[in-house]
Amino acid sequence: MSILVMKFGGTSVANVDRIARAAKRVAVEVAKGHDVILIVSAMAGETNKLVGWVQDTSPLYDAREYDAVTSSGENVTAGLMALRLQEMDIPARSWQGWQVPLLTTSAHGSARIEAIPTENILRKFGEGMRVAVVAGFQGISPEGRITTLGRGGSDTTAVAFAAAFDAVRCDIYTDVDGVYTTDPRICGKARKLDRIAFEEMLELASLGAKVLQTRSVELAMRYKVKLRVLSSFEEQTDEAGTLVCDEEDIMESNAVAGVAYSRDEAKVTLTGVADRPGIAASIFGPLAEAGVNVDMIVQNISEHGQTDMTFSCPTDQVLRAQKALDEAKDRGVFSYGDLVIDRDVAKVSVVGIGMRSHAGVAAQMFKALAAENVNIKVITTSEIKISVLIDRKYMELAVQALHDAFGLEKAAA
Ligand code: ADP
Ligand code: ASP
Ligand code: MG
Asked: Which residues form a coiled coil (predicted)?
């Protein structure tokens, strides 16, 4: 028996017609003899709507109830998909996360998968079921509460199932026909890649390329899952789309493989904090406890024993950050002058394994941005990426300029 994991994202199951279309694609794989584990997302826009309802009801919501509400979109598509397949005489049933059960940590809103016992689904395959339709994005905590895996989490559900069931492949069907050098929606010259290395995909995903959730790439890398991204709207062959694979299996050698962006960033500056040992720990400790994902950090040169501390975090965590900092100040943990918040920033990053051996990528990046008059507010680098924080209104311009500057529209010779 060979198990294939297929995952259809929100746009690919946006209405009953699209569900029918996806089901036809599943039927092709079933006809080839695969037993299919089919992971589905909520219909396009559903999860956003549910998140909006939660925020409108309770701005600093209880994360357990957030998960109870936001996980529900996937239940609808899983049920509808199973019904569609049954209509096509394909034996199928739906599974919600807790029914599998997909066991996770209790970190609500961004839980990690701990285990996926395979017995229940394997038994059903043994009894003649051909497709297990699984609601993506959701699981169950040790306390028995429903959890979610973070936005875009159905990708991670899919890869985790592929690893647990030792699937022949994990096919991620989406609304673009593969992984591109940058988001094709904001750069017309973006080029589809036939292959991309796990490490580059990991960086691109964590820096905002939402085509795959970061954690899904981590899991695929660790468990050697054969991971492919392809379009749900085109006829497919076994070679279509983009294969995410080991570095050794790639011929291309551009210094930069791709450009990523993250739109919803905020920059927070604390002015007039004491420049003394332990100050960073006393500021970032309370932020971590409040669940704020701090990204870039800069500390200014100090004057008269005082300094400014700047950090970035997702826009929707600013309220949480502000509350945590105010409370810490009230408790006398540290003091500061002003809290200056800029919600209109974006992060743009260039990524490439080739940076390890090519010098001057940072200089080239800064030059390209300078030529477009884009001011850089914060910079961070690592071995294979360089990120800058800029005004959000220049984000698309910056992505396009960098795509040009690094010649990404053409494959490396
Ligand atoms: P799904 O609902 O199928 O999970 P997502 O919207 O989460 O789809 O991810 C697909 C989207 O990712 C594309 O529509 C595209 O706009 C965006 N994207 C961002 N960066 C890239 C990239 N480098 N390559 C392909 N798509 C990208
Ligand atoms: N529906 C969830 C989201 O929109 C999970 C997913 O689509 O991967 O984030
Ligand atoms: Mg997605």
From this structure: none
